[in-house]
UniProtKB/TrEMBL annotation:
<protein>
    <recommendedName>
        <fullName>GIY-YIG domain-containing protein</fullName>
    </recommendedName>
</protein>
<feature type="domain" description="GIY-YIG">
    <location>
        <begin position="33"/>
        <end position="114"/>
    </location>
</feature>
<dbReference type="InterPro" id="IPR000305">
    <property type="entry name" value="GIY-YIG_endonuc"/>
</dbReference>
<dbReference type="InterPro" id="IPR035901">
    <property type="entry name" value="GIY-YIG_endonuc_sf"/>
</dbReference>
Length: 121
């Protein structure tokens, strides 16, 4: 296990993490309103790693409502598949979000994850 893995492990034990369906994260307000990082899964497969400096619940509401009304405009989530989408998040300061997002992204790619909904790199 590398140094970054150890740092992430420590961070996960002292910060708020949780998961839910996209619908529940938004409509049932399970996701916090503050900033953080997230992973999006579709039918159990990791599809995207992202950050929400303006708030996790706001980002999830944009994704759930779709590109016509949301500002995040993730074209892959539609009204026909959004109920099969789940999210995992970690609340963190906005100043740390990019660093954690990059670490999660790099870890996923190292494991061979395709991340087909990520437009990074």
């Amino acid at each position: 296990m590398g140094l970054l893995d150890e740092i992430l492990k420590i961070c996960l034990t002292i910060t708020e993490t949780d998961s839910a369906s996209l619908k529940s994260a938004y409509i049932d307000k399970k996701a916090p309103s503050g900033p953080g990082v997230y992973k999006i899964f579709y039918k159990g497969q990791l599809m995207k790693v992202g950050k929400a400096e303006d708030g996790l619940r706001k980002r999830f509401s944009d994704y759930y409502r779709g590109p016509a009304v949301g500002t995040a405009r993730l074209k892959y989530i539609t009204s026909s598949n959004r109920d099969d989408v789940s999210v995992f998040w970690q609340k963190c300061p906005a100043s740390e979000a990019r660093k954690i997002e990059t670490m999660w992204y790099d870890q996923a790619r190292k494991k061979g994850e395709a991340l087909p909904w990520s437009d990074r790199r």
